[in-house]
Amino acid sequence: MKTAAKRKRLVAPRTLSRRILPFFWLVFAAVQLLFCAAIAPAKPLPDVENRAWKIFTSAAQTHQPIGPQVTEAQRERAPPQVKEASDELLGPETQTVFDVTAQLSQHLDSAIEMFNTEGFTANQAAALEENPGLAAAFRGTQIDTYFKQFVTDDPELQDLVVTPRFKFGPDVFNPETQQWWDVTTPAQWSKHVDKYSLFGDGTPLFTK
To answer: Which of 149, 139, 191 has its CA nearest to residue 170?
Structure first.
């Protein structure tokens, strides 16, 4: 009896270890699977990537930029781009942007006074009899003509380029410093900024 009891005590630990060992290996295998899944790279999905690329390229081809479109002829007329020009001198008289803006504003005031004195041309007056709605356009034409003539005749503004009528560009610009000025109204100014962005930094000259 003593021998049988002794054998039973010796066999019990072995049976317990045999039961625990498979559970231990199962846990170990589960940990290994979780670890490998965490560090393993995701498998590519060719179909999904191809569909995403097709959608992207299709959207890029059909996208239309917002704002005015610039033609090649207009781009050639624009001065070359420079890095910094906001505070550079604009002429031999050491004029700053503010000085030139003040002079141009004076010429604009003179142009408005000239129009108020001279009025419309004979052809314009005849056209207004049939279509009075052209008065604002004719007024702008006359003021533009007087203003550009005053700027052209100013010896202190000879570094500025005056854009002729019906040519693309702001009314006045300096190709060396990438500064430009345009006669317009507050409501129309934002459109002019987008339109003439190739010429550099713009300054408005608002009509009264």
So the answer is: 191
| Domain ranges within the chain, ordered by starting residue | 73-78+89-206
- The widest CA-to-CA distance across the chain, in whole angstroms, is 142
User: What is d(CA 79, CA 160) in angstroms, rounded to the nearest whole number?
Assistant: 12
Contact 180, 174 (CB under 8 A): yes
Alpha helices in 63-96 (DSSP H): 72-77
Q: How many CA atoms lie within 13 A of 36 on its CB side?
A: 6
Sort 124 into a burial class: Cβ within 10 Å, 0-12 / 13-18 / 19+: middle
Quick one: average pLDDT of 2-28?
56
The pLDDT value given to residue 50: 60
Residue 203 · residue 101 · CB < 8 Å:
yes
Render pLDDT for 174-195 as a digit per residue (tens, 0 to 9).
Answer: 999 999 999 998 988 999 999 9
Query: Which residue shows structure tokens 């129009």?
Result: 115
Element (H, E) at 184: strand 179-184
Task: Compute the residue count for the chain.
Answer: 208
Distance CA 189, CA 195 (A): 10
Alpha-helix runs per DSSP H in the chain: 2-39, 46-62, 72-77, 97-118, 122-130, 135-153, 189-195
